[in-house]
Write a structure and sequence with these properties.
The complex is a heterodimer of chains A (about 375) and B (about 475). Chain A is of the alpha+beta class and about 375 residues long. Chain A contains 11 helices and 18 strands. Chain A has 2 domains: about 210 residues, FAD/NAD(P)-binding domain (3-Layer(bba) Sandwich); about 160 residues, D-Amino Acid Oxidase, Chain A, domain 2, CATH 3.30.9. The longest helix of chain A has 18 residues. Chain B has 3 domains: about 190 residues, 3-Layer(bba) Sandwich (FAD/NAD(P)-binding domain); about 140 residues, FAD/NAD(P)-binding domain (3-Layer(bba) Sandwich), CATH 3.50.50; about 55 residues, BFD-like [2Fe-2S]-binding domain (Arc Repressor Mutant, subunit A). Chain B has a 5-stranded parallel β-sheet. A 5-stranded parallel β-sheet of chain B has the order 9-16-10-11-12. Chain B has a 4-stranded antiparallel β-sheet with strand order 4-5-6-24. Classes of the chains: A alpha+beta (about 375), B alpha/beta (about 475).
């Protein structure tokens, strides 16, 4: 998704762009995502600024003639964060207050108001916060249609093509990539390799500690529209997203899709690239989803899938030029927010490539902000 | 002596599962035989429900004597407490523990139960491969296996005008069965060229029984004056509320419908069969190596996950006789594993398995769907019924959105994301998209209510609280 958005904004900025993908379009984390475009889970800071920029760009893309919004199932459905206990609600309101000062639309909800937004929510919750800006796209379609648009602006797509090395001149400047299907010469290379972003950086001799964080998603049978209306999650989700723990964490995240099925997340585990299915993780997800929406108990799960979020130790992506390898740019490490943050990232990368003033200060996203060695990181 | 820990769970009570369960029980292993059907026998020995009062069900079955023997032995082991037969239960997940397994089941009413076992044999059988064509979703169009199941189980419908089409050894018994049940057979349409059998003459000649069986069917077709068209295919079914006619065409050497050979045949029933695909979901979720055609097993029918065996169609489609041989071999291997003794595989079972697998491979090579069947599928033809995805949408994903594999086609079109999870539409979608079939991992072998999934693992057997 991030690579597709980079290609789209770069080619729109007039750059001749080649999009290289080792698998198919949306073959990595994108195809295993839920398609969240969220501001609700982000505390004030550079990531929230990037999320706000990205949301604006998603809105603009969705409104373009040609039906892009409908094609990618763009829905500005809004998010609803609920708190089970009064103490959680206090913490949540304080968090929302800070977000409001940073420019996020928030609406504080008393317990009695929750049912107006979500009639099937469990009774007895303490209250919540409504985030009308939170939105959703179908991630694989979003990536595919960004690629399709990019190709209209001249981007050349090469799927099934793996980068095997990064070409550099004697002075160390990047001058293209070598792939299993030949060399591609270019004065700039953008690393949008997601969970494999660290491997690609290593080909250029620089360290970027992108690691996988596994997540499972449960998919239910199709439900009638409006059983679940928003993206609904419990307040502890935000804490889990920001956590550094390697152990399994689950926080219920429930949302409907255009096609009818409800998606249930979210688990986080640092277990490398282990693709073994875990029944116990899906058991916990089911349990917690039912606690939010008791009506889901009677609904069947028809499948479950897993994916790997590409995360960096400080939970911020790497965006922009890498001073250690002139000509190399990074656009990776977006963890579970890659779909949402893709448009802003693409725009910032296009600005960096063309020498335009970036919409946001890139300093917090500097790819060389991590210690040079693994030991230094501990 | 049987110790309570020496337990084998067999999933599926068709020929393979029965043979394995009987072999293990004979050697004093406590067996739990779990099956989705109300009665044992699987698809092959499918029995009419007792309430229908069929007078001579054996008239529809060959190998009836083999079945009667299996059933009597099963009854004896059940009575002696060596086999616990649990019909009407779908296994939705098999959990691999540090020691042993937990099988999670649902009844037709979604009542959950759990069963523990030290070893698991997957004899989950096969289901029919469905390929789309214009009109395939009309009422009256059924799969060949579906027609046969109706014949064996429900004892159907005289007076119908039927066409049987597709390719493979199932078409003959379906056609003769329909004719015997009183339907009129308008035509039997077989895509294969019978001359292709010449290339496998030696393999086929090694099975005189099978040839006699085929000749018997052919003779009955002649008696019923059924027109047989080989190297032909159904290119479309027509009708509004129900199928009224089909258009068939001759195939050229490349497997394309030859222009100007189309003809229309009136019918109100169309049974189409293109062979079978194995049920591999449970094996896949356990982490066993699978490919689109089978769960991969060794000479003892062991999968690459210790404690898990596979036999019958699940380990590669080959018919009931092969399933019986594989089930027996698997059963003996399980006995050896659980008792610590050396496996005693009967050489007759092993020889018969080798020969039957060769025979199945020869049939498979002759009976393939026409190579270019997907060209007949019009853009407005549905390929995925659960999600209402047309062939045109699949082609758009390939040509416009850059999909080149089945997974991406699914992500971009939702084909295969619905209730059937691609079990029915997978081959059709792959063919229309022009990508190879893929092994799809499905963690749940059937949909499971979230309230059932949410319950924490129960260490004790029986009904989940």
């Amino acid at each position: 998704m991030v690579g597709a958005a980079c290609a789209l904004y770069a080619s729109r900025a007039g750059l001749r762009t080649v999009l290289v993908e080792r698998g198919p379009v949306a073959g990595g984390t994108t195809g295993a995502g839920e398609g969240n475009l969220l501001v609700s889970d982000k505390e004030p800071g550079p990531e929230l600024q990037l999320a706000l920029l990205s949301l604006r760009l998603w809105r603009e893309l969705a409104a373009e003639p040609g039906g892009f919004g409908a094609a990618v199932e763009y829905r500005a459905k809004g998010g609803l964060v609920v708190a089970a206990h009064p103490s959680d609600l206090d913490a949540l309101s304080a968090f929302a207050g800070k977000q409001r000062s940073a420019g996020v639309e928030t609406g504080l909800l008393a317990a009695s108001q929750l049912a107006d937004l979500e009639p099937h929510l469990a009774p007895g919750l303490a209250g919540g916060v409504h985030y009308p800006e939170d939105s959703q796209v179908m991630p694989a379609l979003a990536a595919a249609h960004c690629v399709r648009q990019a190709r209209r602006y001249g981007t050349e797509l090469r799927t099934g093509t793996a980068v095997t090395s990064i070409l550099r001149d004697p002075g160390g400047r990047v001058r293209g990539v070598r792939t299993d299907k030949g060399d591609i010469h270019a004065p700039a290379v953008v690393n949008a390799a997601g969970v494999r972003g660290g491997d690609l950086a290593a080909l250029a001799g620089v360290r970027l500690p992108v690691r996988p964080r596994r997540g499972f998603v449960l998919v239910t049978e199709p439900l009638p529209p409006r059983v679940v209306r928003h993206k609904v999650y419990a307040a502890d989700y935000v804490a889990d997203v920001a956590s550094d723990s390697a152990a399994l964490q689950t926080s219920p995240v429930v949302e409907a899709t255009d096609a009818g099925p409800v998606l249930i997340g979210a688990s986080r585990e640092r277990v490398g690239f282990d693709r073994t299915f875990s029944l116990s993780v899906t058991q916990v997800l089911a349990e917690r989803a039912i606690a939010l929406f008791p009506v889901l108990g009677r609904v069947s799960a028809i499948r479950a899938y897993l994916g790997f979020r590409p995360y960096l130790p400080d939970h911020l992506p790497a965006i922009g030029p890498d001073p250690r390898a002139p000509g190399l740019f990074h656009a990776c490490g977006h963890e579970g927010a890659g779909i949402g943050l893709a448009t802003g990232t693409g725009q910032l990368i296009a600005q960096a490539l063309t020498g335009a003033t970036p919409d946001l200060d890139l300093a917090p996203f500097r790819p060389d902000r991590f210690p040079a060695s693994e030991e230094g990181a501990r | 002596m049987t110790s309570p820990t020496n337990r084998l769970a067999v999933v599926g009570a068709g020929p393979a599962g029965l043979a394995a369960a009987l072999t293990a029980a004979h050697h004093n292993i406590a067996v739990t035989l779990i099956d989705s059907a109300p009665q044992p026998g699987g698809q092959f020995y499918r029995q009419p429900a007792a309430a229908l009062g069929a007078r001579r069900p054996q008239a529809l079955h060959h190998a009836w004597r083999t079945w009667a023997r299996l059933r009597d032995r099963l009854d004896a082991h059940v009575a002696a407490g060596r086999i616990r037969h649990l019909p009407g239960r779908h296994v939705w997940f098999v959990e691999l523990l540090d020691r042993g397994f937990i099988l999670r089941t649902l009844t037709a009413d979604d009542e959950p139960e759990v069963f523990a076992a030290d070893a698991v044999l997957l004899a989950t059988g096969a289901y029919e491969k469905v390929l789309p064509f214009p009109g395939w979703t009309l009422p009256g169009v059924v799969t060949a296996g579906g027609a046969q199941a109706m014949l064996k189980g429900g004892l159907v419908l005289p007076g119908r005008m039927a066409v049987v089409a597709g390719s493979g050894p199932l078409l003959l018994p379906v056609a003769t069965g329909l004719a015997a049940a009183g339907a009129r057979l308008a035509a039997l349409i077989e895509a294969a060229d019978p001359r292709a059998y010449g290339r496998h003459a030696r393999t086929l000649a090694a099975h005189p029984g099978k040839l006699a069986e085929a000749a018997g069917y052919a003779g009955r077709l002649l008696r019923h004056r059924v027109p047989v068209l080989t190297r032909h295919t159904v290119v479309a079914a027509h009708g509004t509320d129900r199928v009224e006619a089909v258009t068939v065409a001759a195939l050229d050497a490349d497997g394309r419908a030859r222009p100007k050979t189309e003809r229309r045949i009136a019918c109100d029933t169309l049974a189409v069969g293109h062979g079978l695909l194995p049920h591999t979901d449970l094996a896949g979720a356990l982490g066993c190596r699978t490919d689109p055609a089978r769960v991969v097993v060794d000479a003892q029918q062991r999968t690459d996950v210790p404690g898990v065996w596979a036999a019958g169609e699940a380990a590669g489609v080959g018919g009931a006789a092969l399933a019986l041989a594989e089930g027996e071999i698997a059963g003996r291997s399980v006995v050896a594993h659980l008792t610590g003794e050396r496996p005693r595989i009967r050489s007759t079972a092993a020889t018969s398995r080798t020969a039957l697998r060769k025979f199945a491979a020869a049939l498979d090579a002759v009976h393939t769907p026409p190579a270019h069947w997907a060209e007949q599928v019009a853009d407005d033809t549905l390929v995925c019924r659960c999600e209402d995805v047309t062939a045109g949408a699949v082609r758009h994903a390939v040509t416009e959105l850059g999909a080149a594999d089945l997974r991406t086609v699914k992500l971009l079109t939702r084909a295969g994301m619905g209730w059937c999870q691609g079990r029915v539409c997978g081959p059709g979608v792959a063919g229309v998209a022009g990508c190879p079939p893929e092994t799809v991992r499905r963690p749940f072998a059937r949909p499971v209510p979230l309230s059932v999934l949410a319950r924490t693992p129960s260490p004790t057997e029986g009904r989940q609280e």
